[in-house]
Amino acid sequence: CNRTEEDLLLEVCPEQIECLSEGVEFEIEVEGPQNWVTDNTADWIDISREQSSALVKISEAKGADRQNRIMFSSGSQRAYLYIRQSGAHIFSINTTEIKAGYKGGSWTVAVECHEPWTVSCESGWVVTDITEASSPQEVTVEIAESHEKEEREARLHFSCNGKTLTVRIIQDPGPYIALE
Hints:
This protein is mainly β. 0% of the residues lie in helices and 54% in strands. It contains no helices and 17 strands. It has strands spanning 11-13, 16-19, 24-31, 37-38, 45-50, 53-58, 66-74, 77-85, 91-93, 97-100, 105-113, 117-121, 126-128, 132-133, 137-143, 152-160, 163-171. A 5-stranded mixed sheet has the order 10-17-16-12-14, with no helix packed on it. It is rod-shaped and about 105 Å long.
């Protein structure tokens, strides 16, 4: 058989990688001509040559799901590797309670989330500067002055993908003078 390296069919195995958000390494078999190159431009994927294979390093995903297609080529031949990685799905807030004096005021709640999320409150005396976002944000919470005789309470609800985180707001009663 007088086959040259150019006559060999370029193939990668496996052709698809699916992984979780943690960083991971895979060895990919590259069959055919060994003068192959890749077109990888994703900064979260590193590919190095290992004789007749490629070592694929995928970094930890700290945000949303991501995917990429990497083309291996040798001359006019092409083979593709498809990579899909689940995102970290981080959803957190930096506090679970706000204690306000009767005069009210302004507070900030930091939201860590890389997917669409919302914030709502059932009480009219608590207002936020935003009601939705798709990235980490600081939400300004304005609490109105209290004229109530008793301590009052409200809840801010932060929701993302069916998960809800709550901030309990407690406000002191307003100044009260008993009339005889």
